[in-house]
UniProtKB/TrEMBL annotation:
SMART domains, alphabetized: Alpha_L_fucos
Residues covered by the Glycoside hydrolase family 29 N-terminal domain: 25-366
Biological function: Alpha-L-fucosidase is responsible for hydrolyzing the alpha-1,6-linked fucose joined to the reducing-end N-acetylglucosamine of the carbohydrate moieties of glycoproteins.
GO BP: fucose metabolic process; glycoside catabolic process
UniProt name for this protein: alpha-L-fucosidase
Source organism phylogeny: Bacteria, Pseudomonadati, Bacteroidota, Bacteroidia, Bacteroidales
GO molecular function: alpha-L-fucosidase activity
Organism in which the protein naturally occurs: Paramuribaculum intestinale
Length: 459
């Protein structure tokens, strides 16, 4: 029942999300989850589930004009793919490819990124090493279509991915590589002999097995580069573009080699492809309706877009905290999408919001990090989490934005016993529980409006 409910919720959520922007990957259904058997992977997954909060960077050619990531070169007639003016499609693609000549992020400062994200309370970082457009943000030896070959070539940080990963490792983050299996730039995926009508390969594998083989070798080769050690130890391989399966590119053997070599326990996220190589699931732009017992992560944008766009309608810090509370209470992690500017910085409008989230987490993080779920996990805008041993419960209250703080917080179930405190400031709280199991907590005067967390023991 719970699982069916969750799937329906995901379907509803993705329809709405699709109107906002972008193609949204369906979450695989619960029956498709397969627990890993490699103990190193199980251990890493366990550690990852404690982190709760991460960042997903989208940075690439699309950051120059500030448009939807990659998708505008895909000739599918849908609302969320808008194209420049009335440019004919072929001309448009040429213009888009030529952005490789203008992406020159002279202010690229991965230390600034890492400083902001660490301050925001994030604990893992995933970076777009290559998006669907095929433009590599790492120094691939297998193509010239990369940040390391254009105007940025001479820069000491031209192998961008390495510098991003190093900066985040320095701050103690777990590291994930986003990599798109589809690649619309290589001729072995979209071959110039034919038109490119949609996201798929534009030829028949049966007729051109050699092209397909070259695509497979190219893709496996690039993954090999990312896993070669040049980019340090990876914790997560986050594979996007589920219309190509891991099996299509020999993911099993890539993982086997990586895990037995430099990347023990590497978590594989073959998104929306059920089974052994989807070590956690990735509902997108929304949170499942109910708790899920297997590992999952909601990826949600800080604005409406994954990449940088001008005048982005950013979510408030309170909204992000509410998303984090809900995700945690349902047993998942929150992966927040942030788009650096074409110059290579996190813009101030994103930065202050992220730092404000971190300010809250410094005072209330005990209710989030390394917590586990508890059966009664929600009542209205109150979300419950539990300490690992289950002895302590946390109630995270997420009032609607702009709402004045009530004098009393009320919830049903999870009856407290003994001492109760406000996490922020460790102040003792008075409360009562009535015969129907309804608890009323009195908030002291002067509590700031906004999310707060309460700590107590369960009766
Ligand atoms: C979707 C989109 C892709 C984006 C990803 C991020 O799969 O296709 O553009 O990178 O979501 O979650």
């Amino acid at each position: 029942m719970a699982a069916a409910g969750a799937i329906m919720a995901t379907a509803a959520m993705t329809a709405e999300a699709q109107q906002v922007q972008g193609f949204v990957h369906q979450q695989s259904d619960a029956s498709g989850y397969e627990w890993p058997t490699d103990t190193a992977v199980i251990n890493k997954l366990d550690q990852w589930r404690d982190l709760k909060f991460g960042v997903l960077f989208h940075w690439g050619l699309y950051s120059v004009p500030g448009i939807v990531e990659s998708w505008s070169i895909c000739s599918e007639d849908v609302d969320w793919i808008s194209r420049k003016g009335n440019m004919p499609y072929e001309e448009y693609k040429k213009w888009y490819w030529s952005l490789a000549d203008s992406l020159n992020p002279t202010q690229f400062d991965p230390a600034q990124w890492a400083d902001i994200m660490a301050d925001a309370g994030m604990r893992y970082a995933i970076f777009t090493t290559k998006h669907h457009d095929g433009f590599c943000m790492f120094d691939s030896r297998l193509t010239d279509f990369s940040i390391a070959k254009g105007p940025f070539a001479g820069n000491e940080k031209s192998d961008v991915t390495r510098h991003v990963f190093d900066a985040f490792r320095d701050k103690g983050f777990s590291i994930g590589a986003y990599f798109s299996k589809p690649d619309w730039h290589t001729e072995w995926f979209w071959n110039p002999e034919f038109a490119t009508p949609n996201r798929h390969i534009n030829y028949k594998k049966e007729r051109h097995p050699d092209w397909w083989k070259r695509y497979q070798d190219f893709t496996a080769g690039q993954l090999g580069e990312l896993l070669s050690g040049r980019y340090g130890r990876l914790d997560i391989l986050w594979l996007d573009g589920g219309w190509i399966k891991g099996d299509d590119i020999g993911l099993d053997s890539i993982l086997l080699e990586a895990r037995s070599g430099r990347h023990p326990g590497l978590i594989s996220v073959d998104r929306s492809i059920r089974g052994r190589n989807e070590n956690y699931q990735t509902p997108e732009r929304g949170i499942p309706e109910k708790q899920l017992s297997y590992p999952w992560e909601s990826c949600i944008t800080l604005s409406n877009d994954w990449g940088w766009v001008p005048d982005a309608p950013y979510k408030s810090p309170e909204k992000v905290i509410a998303l984090l509370a809900e995700t945690t209470a349902k047993g998942g992690c929150l992966l927040l999408g942030v788009g650096p500017t074409a110059e290579g910085l996190i813009e101030p409008e994103a930065e202050w919001r992220l730092r404000a989230v971190g300010e809250w987490l410094r005072r209330n993080g005990e209710a989030i990090y390394s917590t586990v779920t508890t059966p009664i996990y929600n009542d209205g805008n109150v979300w419950f989490t539990a300490s690992k041993d289950g002895s302590t419960l946390y109630a995270i209250v997420t009032p609607a934005e702009g709402e004045a703080m009530p004098r009393q917080i009320t919830w049903n179930g999870n009856e407290p016993k003994g001492r109760m405190t406000l996490l922020d400031g460790r102040r003792k709280l008075s409360y009562s529980t009535d015969r129907n199991g309804v608890t009323r907590v009195n908030l002291p005067k002067g509590v700031k409006a906004g999310p707060l967390a309460i700590k107590f023991r369960k009766r």
